[in-house]
Design a protein that fits this description.
binds FE2/S2 (inorganic) cluster; Fumarate Reductase Iron-sulfur Protein, Chain B, domain 2; five-stranded mixed beta sheet; Ubiquitin-like (UB roll); alpha+beta; binds iron/sulfur cluster; 3 domains
């Protein structure tokens, strides 16, 4: 079967901007998108640039946008793409600078991974590890929630809606990596807390919008968003509740516990806390809502059935869930 592949091309030495080019190719059974790209490069246009190595979904270097979704080219079947989309388009990963054609610059990606200190912190000199405290990490498939399966392909970062609007966001891959080390029993508790303190700062765990795209595109089922939720839970349990993101959660829970529902008029006050600066920041929005009749009544009575809601909270507390 002869197919058309539409590839996004960009040569920084000659092109002002990226453009699409079509290539016709005979495809055989079992062919992957990477196989097709390498055939195009060998037989039609040797200037096509792409990155790959293992060809077995191990090294993570061939991530690109195939028919609008971030995928590994080496494990994406041409036939399946054709059945699903009726065409094959290939572009570089989104939201990362393009070096040439399908090759993106991953330096910011690696810098963010380094920023979460992806290694175990040693005990300080004040707390030297005693032989009796040394521990062997026995195989335990559940301990790291599969986060250790990450192959650093960058697909999740390219798909991330938060990264799209804020390039400073730590991003799903780096935060998932941080979760892996937080789950490691060999790291001292003080180091874990220091990790959480760093991660709760601006551009950290509270900047995720929970869009789930990182989970959808990850070729290794790492589920970065779930790792971020674990980090948020750990931060709250460690008493790190001063950030806007943390206050949003604790305020939400407080309102439901007290009134049985979300009181949208009081919620912004719970989030800004007693900071005058933050209050002045949200005040214009509150006034605009009031003038347009969209401000909910802050004095609405609690809903009926409060007794059941209190029972739910009491039961959660008994089971050790934060409430
Ligand atoms: S869930 Fe969070 S980390 Fe994942 S893609 Fe969405 S915003 Fe990014
Ligand atoms: S979390 Fe998944 S998508 Fe993100 S870099 Fe790792 S393997 Fe790739
Ligand atoms: S070439 Fe290594 S993951 Fe595709």
């Amino acid at each position: 079967m002869r197919l058309t592949f539409t590839l996004t091309r960009f040569n920084p030495e000659t092109d002002a901007q990226a453009h699409d080019e079509d290539y016709r190719l005979d495809v055989g059974r079992g062919m992957t998108v990477l196989d097709a790209l390498l055939r195009i490069k060998d037989e039609q246009d040797g200037s096509l640039s792409l990155r790959y190595s293992c060809r077995s979904a191990i090294c993570g270097s061939c991530a690109m946008e195939i028919n609008g979704t971030e995928k590994l080219a080496c494990r994406t079947s041409v036939r399946k793409e054709l059945e699903r989309h009726g065409r094959i388009t290939v572009a570089p990963l989104r939201n990362l600078p393009v070096i040439k054609d399908l090759v993106v610059d991953l330096s910011s990606f690696w810098a963010k991974i380094r920023d979460v200190t992806p290694w175990l912190s040693r005990p300080t000199h004040a707390q030297p590890a005693q032989p009796a405290q040394q521990m062997t990490l026995l195989p335990d498939s559940g301990r790291f929630h599969n986060v250790d399966a990450c192959i650093m392909c960058g697909a999740c970062v390219a798909a991330c809606t938060s990264h799209e609007v804020s390039r400073n966001f730590a991003g799903p891959a780096a935060l998932a990596k941080a979760d892996r080390f937080l789950a490691d029993p060999r790291e001292p508790a003080t180091a874990k807390r220091a990790r959480l303190v760093r991660l709760e700062q601006d551009h950290g765990i509270w900047d995720c919008t929970r869009c789930n795209f990182c989970v959808e595109v990850c070729p290794k089922d790492v589920k970065p968003m779930e790792a971020i939720i674990r980090l948020r839970r750990a931060a709250l349990e460690a008493g790190l509740t001063a950030t806007g993101g943390a206050r949003h959660i604790t305020g939400f829970v407080e309102l439901v516990r007290e009134e049985g529902r979300l009181n949208e008029a009081l919620m912004p006050l719970k989030v800004v806390g007693n900071s005058l600066g933050r209050l002045l920041h949200v005040l214009p929005l509150g006034i605009r809502m009031l003038l347009k009749g969209k401000a909910p009544n802050p004095f609405a009575p609690p809903i009926p059935g409060m007794a059941q809601i209190r029972t739910i909270f009491a039961t959660a507390r008994q089971r050790g869930k934060p409430s």
